[in-house]
Amino acid sequence: MTLPPRDWLPRALEESRARGFLGPQDLEGQIAHAHGFSLVWESLRAGPPARYLDLGSGGGLPGLILAAHWRCETVLLDSMERRGSFLREVVGEEGSPPRLSVVVARAEDAARVESLEGTFDLVTARSFAPPAVTAECSVRFLRLGGLTIVSDPPGGGEPGRWPEDGLSQLGLRASAHAAGGFSYRVLEKTRETEDLFPRPSGIPTRRPLW
């Protein structure tokens, strides 16, 4: 997997790794995994998403990769100010994609901000939280028919990670996908989100739906 021909992206990823925001795995492998999100999306939808959110963006994967690839309107969301400050630095550098912005907030709170609620075709989650928390915290960001794409363990992980009855509470339907040797779970929003979800900050983690 080769980097897009833009100096901005490799600089941003190297700086992210230097600050300890990316894992110890080989960077090329992490880039390939990030591209897998785009391969899954493109296998299901024609063209890039109109609006995309990276949930728990952290060091910028897959958000920076996908922003550079699609150059669509992109929001990088993270709850930690230190990581958010880094992402703002990156977004402000010369050569960064257009329409790329950063929000520092808890997902439970950000999902109820009018400009973010129900406005995204795609939400991605690389290593945000366990399945129940990821599903609950992502669903309100999605338009009806929108997709959350989540990184799964190899082979999809343990049976029951994405139970149909649990997801149905949120109006989501799950399917498993593989791309580039990696596993992903796609959660499609099939009905409007009830006012209850997501529950107030911290509750999805303390009292997961499954």
Describe the secondary-structure layout:
Layout: H1 8-18, H2 27-44, E1 51-55, H3 63-70, E2 73-78, H4 81-91, E3 100-104, H5 107-110, E4 120-125, H6 131-139, E5 142-152, H7 164-169, E6 172-179, E7 182-189, H8 203-206
Parallel strand pairs: 1-2, 1-4, 2-3, 4-5
Antiparallel strand pairs: 5-7, 6-7
Helix pairs in contact: 2-3
Question: What features would you highlight for this structure?
Answer:
210 residues; 2 domains; alpha/beta; 7 strands; 8 helices; disordered N terminus; seven-stranded mixed sheet; Rossmann fold; globular
Share of residues in helices = 25-40%
CATH domain topology of the largest domain: Rossmann fold
Total of domains: 2
Taking pLDDT < 50 over at least 5 consecutive residues as the criterion, the unreliable ranges are 1-5
What do we call the CATH homologous superfamily of the largest domain? Vaccinia Virus protein VP39
The tally of beta strands, per DSSP, is 7
Could you state the order of secondary-structure elements as H and E? HHEHEHEHEHEHEEH
Silhouette: globular
CATH hierarchy, class of the largest domain:
Alpha Beta
Main sheet: strand order: 3-2-1-4-5-7-6
- What is the overall number of helices? 8
How would you sum up the major sheet? 7 strands, mixed
Alpha carbon gyration radius: 16 Å
